[in-house]
Amino acid sequence: xxxxxxxxRKVLVIAxxxxxxxxxxxxxxxxxxxxxxxxxxxxxxxxxxxxxxxxTETQRALGWRAxxxxxxxxxxxxxxxxxxxxxxxxxxxxxxxxxxxQAGDRSxxxxxQDGLYRGAIGLAPGLWRVEIRGTDAAGRSFDARVxxxxxxxx
Length: 154
Description:
This protein has helices at residues 8-36, 45-62; strands at residues 65-71, 74-80, 91-97, 106-113, 116-120, 126-135, 141-150. A hairpin with a 2-residue loop joins strand 4 (106-113) and strand 5. It is built from two helices and seven strands; from the N terminus they run H-H-E-E-E-E-E-E-E. It folds into two domains: 1-39; 64-150, Immunoglobulin-like, CATH 2.60.40. The protein is elongated and about 90 Å long. Helix content is 31%, strand content 35%. The protein is an alpha+beta fold. The longest helix is centred in the first third of the chain and has 29 residues, at 8-36.
């Protein structure tokens, strides 16, 4: 059996090939990541922040709170005022989707029943992002965003 001598040139070729494979894998992952999500959420972050501050102050002045839960029938939301009393007579909509993507977002209207706003929607088990908007007859609106976990049906 003949043994081959390990020379500096062979070690260099082995090292370059190994780093080449690592570099190719990293570049592939980088292009896949940046090609599917550019990272932009808003066009102008300064304008968006000013709008956010304005809406936040308006909502604080209302003193409302929104609590949401996944129930067997779908989604249930309770709006309360600063005193803890239910806020009634709202037009309520909710957008429900997965936290990492907007691809499968669904919008539903919730109907008022016994101080709760309910909407029928079937949710697969897992984490869900829920964006809720309640608007009263005077045009005042309250936005809330929550993450809820849907359990598997037993």
